[in-house]
Amino acid sequence: MIQTLPGNGATVSSGASNWSSAKLGHLLSTELLQDIHENFDEMGKAAKVGILFAMLYVRKGDIMRMQSVINKIYAAAENDDHEWIQVTSRILKNALTERRLNTRVEQWSPSFGDVVDKVEGAVKQDGISFHPTEYALLTKEAQPECPYASKVYRSDEPTHDQHFKLNTTAMDKSNSDRQQLFQELLKKNDANARRSMSPPTKMGRPGVMGPNGPLQSRPRPPPSSGMFRRYPNATQPPPSSMAPKPAAKSLFIPSRARKPSLGSASNFAKLPQGMPVRPPLPSPSSDTTPKGFLRQSRVQMIDFNENTTLEKNNAEELNAAKEQLQAEKEARKEMAAEKRRLDKDRKRREAEEDRQRAREEKLSNIPSGGDPKRQRRAQPTNPQINT
């Protein structure tokens, strides 16, 4: 079923063959949901249920922006004429925000409440006969106790009771008709398999199977073909006995020079003398190549979301590598500066030690009387008076 919205011409498909709530959920927008809300009453039952399920697949980033329109659609579905649409809306109403389904259907639907009461009464009266799937992985001691269980459930034996019966219509095919169609398909497959496994003929190609005859080989070329063009009055070349004999070898008659070999031509049967060599068959062009022998082109599908994520990760890794390289350069610079400072301090200490050592050596070389220069400076000068 396809519903067309009169607002902007948007379509909502709910056919059994092409319906997908996940695909439609990713295409929903605020404008489209607004059009759906305005024309919700004009849609069919299947389209309404499909839209209710499709809203579960709205993108997480769009939930807050579309929440008001989604609540309006669920409110319109709760007041719908069909009870199934009302129940579906109440079950899915808070699924996006609370992340759970409201399965207490009997609280707001009397008809569903009656069905639930009947099922509970039948279970309490007859018990459950089916084991949950996870019981296959649990031992007998680990399986929880069931308060309402039948004898089959407790004995762990398969049941042979008929639980349902298929409905048949006039359009259904009988079992004999299905078997006949199946046998015809088997015969057709066997015939195709035998045809593909037919042995090749002498010419290297599989022969054509006649209706009542053996394999047909390649026909003989007509006499007017190029093989017998040198002998127009004969249908075949003369026998080898009629060919002229070569001159006998002698000491005075040189032998005829042999033509150079044509590579791997000696590996094949030689043609009779005088018979022209058939030219090689032309290679088929691209225009005459059948479609079955064309090389299939490969088409690569690209997901834009994955491509964006991959580019983002590559950019982050590149930035991290650049930062690490810059940090290593800074560390090397600091180490070099620290090494230069230590060398400078060492040289300064060595120079200070050398000066101190030279000063001590100079003081040790002074005599006990003191420095003669200082003594001369200390003696007073007596001026001479000329009389």
How are the elements arranged and paired?
Blueprint lengths: L1 E3 L6 E3 L7 H7 L2 H9 L6 H10 L8 H16 L4 H10 L2 H4 L11 H17 L24 H5 L19 H22 L11 E2 L5 E2 L87 H61 L7 H7 L9
Antiparallel strand pairs: 1-2, 3-4
Describe this structure in words.
The protein is mostly helical and 387 residues long. The chain has a domain at 2-105. The chain has helices at 21-27, 30-38, 45-54, 63-78, 83-92, 95-98, 110-126, 151-155, 175-196, 304-364, 372-378; strands spanning 2-4, 11-13, 208-209, 215-216. The chain has a two-stranded antiparallel sheet. The chain has a two-stranded antiparallel ribbon with strand order 3-4. Helix 3 (45-54) packs parallel to helix 5. The N and C termini lie far apart (154 Å). 6% of the residues are buried. The model is unreliable at 1-17 and 263-268 (pLDDT under 50). Residues 186-295, 324-387 are annotated as: Disordered. Residues 378-387 have a biased composition (Polar residues). InterPro entries: NELF-A_N.
